[in-house]
């Protein structure tokens, strides 16, 4: 079976995020230099491996495999909050969150080009690939028609054929709204209050409102951490082992199936969102601190830099590899361990090879994929 489910996703690499939030000097706050934070690349490297692991199974679990689904649910309790934290951290650190209001219209135009164009391009591309691929192989999350899929891409986003691109759209919304809120008197307080209200607000999926409301609190947390500067770094350097242990105390019982969630029903609702909030907030000092404590890691930093292209194309390579392997292996408890290793390798390194061999040679695609 050609598996192309986009149920969950990861955001771009730190390099791509910096390009997404970083503006020319005229649109950046004064005194905000262009920097590269290798510790954040390491954090992204760890996170992107979890993303690929979460995409190994699309819809139907392998026969006799009961451990994978709860493990995946546990992973998604914290990995997307972590990605939003990193995005907020960079937006505030680079000064784009506090752009002068006189320059705000220009900011919106630039963010639209940087984020909305890739969102639409990859969303439409994924939809077209699925419609074409369905002529020769079964495809997961296939719309009943092209126009239905196009509608679901923006309106009924719970059924979107390209859910993986939601992060780019949501990041655009955050990047243009945050400067407006911060421009208010006591803007930082209003930003925190807005994030709290949005988190508990019951909203539906049109235009990814459910995700916009759910993850803004983590974006704001990243901004507060960036503005705390060395104070945040000192605290996480001391507290990350305890935060990591607490994160494990929340996530491990879910991974073992002791605390079950049916995320097809529970996602974006309480009590799942309480677990998401707790695990997500714990992951921020835990993973950021761990990435700082472990020192330089060429492998993780490389994966972090390449995580945008992995994010975009991992499900395609996983699906194609699975279709080939199913000709010789069964989708059950016996064949799955072997397939899992192959699918992890394909989902991680296939997109990197695609970028190096093809995408990098086409300027417009090279810019989109970082």
Automatic annotation (TrEMBL):
MF (Gene Ontology): acyltransferase activity, transferring groups other than amino-acyl groups
Coiled coil feature spans: none
Recorded superkingdom: Bacteria
Alphabetized UniProt keyword annotations: Acyltransferase, Membrane, Transferase, Transmembrane, Transmembrane helix
Keyword Transmembrane helix: yes
Signal peptide: none
Pfam (any one): Acyl_transf_3
UniProt keyword Protein transport, yes or no: no
Occurrences of domain Acyltransferase (ranges): 38-354
Transmembrane region(s): 73-92, 113-137, 164-182, 189-209, 215-233, 240-261, 267-287, 308-331, 337-358
Protein name: Acyltransferase family protein
């Amino acid at each position: 079976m050609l598996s192309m489910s986009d149920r969950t996703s990861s955001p771009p690499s730190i390099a791509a995020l910096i390009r997404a939030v970083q503006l020319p000097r005229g649109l950046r706050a004064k005194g905000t230099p262009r920097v590269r934070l290798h510790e954040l690349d390491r954090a992204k490297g760890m996170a992107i491996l979890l993303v690929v692991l979460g995409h190994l199974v699309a819809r139907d679990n392998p026969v006799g495999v009961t451990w994978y689904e709860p493990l995946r649910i546990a992973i998604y309790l914290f990995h997307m909050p972590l990605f939003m934290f990193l995005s907020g951290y960079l937006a505030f650190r680079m000064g784009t969150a506090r752009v002068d209001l006189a320059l705000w219209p220009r900011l919106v135009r630039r963010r639209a080009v940087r984020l909305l164009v890739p969102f639409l391009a990859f969303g439409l591309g994924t939809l077209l690939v699925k419609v074409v691929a369905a002529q020769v192989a079964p495809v997961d999350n296939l719309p009943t028609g092209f126009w239905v899929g196009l509608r679901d891409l923006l309106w009924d986003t719970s059924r979107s054929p390209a859910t993986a691109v939601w992060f780019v759209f949501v990041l655009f919304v955050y990047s243009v709204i945050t400067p407006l809120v911060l421009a208010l008197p006591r803007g930082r307080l209003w930003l925190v209050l807005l994030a709290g209200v949005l988190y508990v607000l019951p909203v539906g999926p049109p235009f990814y409102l459910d995700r916009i409301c759910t993850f803004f609190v983590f974006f704001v947390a990243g901004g507060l951490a960036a503005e705390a500067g060395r104070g945040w770094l000192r605290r996480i350097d001391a507290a990350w082992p305890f935060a990591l242990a607490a994160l494990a105390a929340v996530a491990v019982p879910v991974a073992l199936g002791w605390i079950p969630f049916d995320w097809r029903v529970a996602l974006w609702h309480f009590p799942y969102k309480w677990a998401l909030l707790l695990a997500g907030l714990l992951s921020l000092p835990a993973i950021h601190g761990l990435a700082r404590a472990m020192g330089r890691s060429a492998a993780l930093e490389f994966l972090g830099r390449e995580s945008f292209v992995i994010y975009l194309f991992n499900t395609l390579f996983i699906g194609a590899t699975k279709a080939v392997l199913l000709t010789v292996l069964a989708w059950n408890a016996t064949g799955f361990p072997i397939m899992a290793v192959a699918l992890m390798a394909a989902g991680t390194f296939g997109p990197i090879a695609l970028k190096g061999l093809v995408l990098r040679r086409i300027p417009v695609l090279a810019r989109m994929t970082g």
